[in-house]
Amino acid sequence: MSVEFIGMIQQHKVSETHLPKGPVIDIDYLRSFAQAHENAGFNRILVPHSSTSPDATLTIAYAATVTSHIHFMLAHRPGFVAPTLAARQIATLDQLSGGRLAVHFISGGSDADQRRDGDYLSHDERYARTDEYLQILRRVWTEDKPFDHDGRFYRFEQAYSDVKPKQLPHVPIYFGGASAPALEVAGKHADVYALWGESKQQVLEQITRVRAEAAKHGRKVRFSVSFRPILASTEKAAWERAEHILAETRRLRVEQGFSRGGPQESEGARRLLAAAGDGVRADERLWTAVAKEIGGRSNSTALVGTPAQVAQTLAEYHELGVTTFLIRGVDPLEDAIDYGRELIPATRELTTRARHAA
User: 341 — phi, psi (to 5°)?
Assistant: First the structure.
């Protein structure tokens, strides 16, 4: 299958090396950010979710009006909106965007962030809720008659939606989570299973596990891996840039009064921090120094090198079964533009060549 690239947009400029400045929603920046991804050749853009961030659904609704063909991925946490309402909202957004929507369902890796919105379920309970939530969404999206539901987390009568997704049978479902309960949900529901940036051996092991879970339900799953490419014209310059990014990350964390980040409460964070063992480099290009500095939060592992070197590494992950790469930079807008110049075309060329040779 051809390789897919996903970027990420936010409502204002912020990253590990850029403190947020100006309005929380900078409309000019958001428009430029979305259009830069479209022009750079990305297939899709993720709009992330946190308990303090602007609404991702409305952000995509706006971004879809200032772009013409790039697709979107909504980060969505089950539990804060009734699944019957969420199904209608997602279907409506898919219709209004012209069938350009996918949804990444996030059960929640941080107890503290969940509790800001009033969610006190345990880790395993959150995944059980996600399982039931996704079962309901599928029924609302696909069934042509009202239905009742009486489950562990949700109960309702005569649920139905006049609006269905433009994409049939429904919008693509992306899903992540590395624990045993998460893998069970992935096997039942995920169209694409998303990993953070781990070593090639770790990724292969996880692909094998998820494929086994999906096979129990007669399903097949595609795979996505997230990286933060750090590029330069030479390998030496790329590693120098990486060290500068680490130093700046540390400086800003000290400036904000943060200590070195403790690990987030998720199996995915544990795996990400273990990617390089006691060091900060794994395989040829995987660099985990920033991930360890911030406690394994989000997609924080990097691939470091020239565009050709990083493209070769991505092609090697593709050979393992990875079909999708979520890439974003520490200079968010500028790096998105830069990825479109060489990295994305070079990776597509390598993976296309490998498919034709197979």
Answer: -70, -50
Stretches in the chain below the pLDDT threshold 50: 276
CA dist 228 and 117 (Å) reads: 29
- CATH number for the domain running over 4-357: 3.20.20.30
What residue spans define the domains of the chain? 4-357
Amino acid at 68: S
User: What is the β-pairing status of strands 44-47 and 4-8?
Assistant: parallel
pTM above 0.90, yes or no: yes
pLDDT at residue 265, rounded to an integer: 55
Which pair of structure tokens corresponds to residue 128? 């059980």
Instruction: Retrieve residue 24's tokens.
Output: 């929380």
CA–CA separation, 210 and 117 (whole Å):
30
- Write out the DSSP string of 235-296: HHHHHHHHHHHHHHHHHHHHHTT--SPPPPSSHHHHHHHHTTTTSSEETTTEE-HHHHHTTS
Q: What's the pLDDT score for residue 310?
A: 98
Asked if residues 191 and 221 have their Cβ atoms less than 8 Å apart, the reply is: yes
Would you call 74 helix, strand, or coil by DSSP? Answer: strand
C-alpha–C-alpha distance, residues 37 and 131, integer Å: 32
Residue pair 203/320 in contact by the 8 Å Cβ criterion: yes
Q: What pLDDT score does 191 carry?
A: 98
With CA atoms as reference, report the closest residue to 95 among 9, 162, 8: 162
Strand partners for 47: 74
Question: pLDDT tens digits for 92-102?
Answer: 999 999 999 99
What is the reported pLDDT for 274?
A: 66
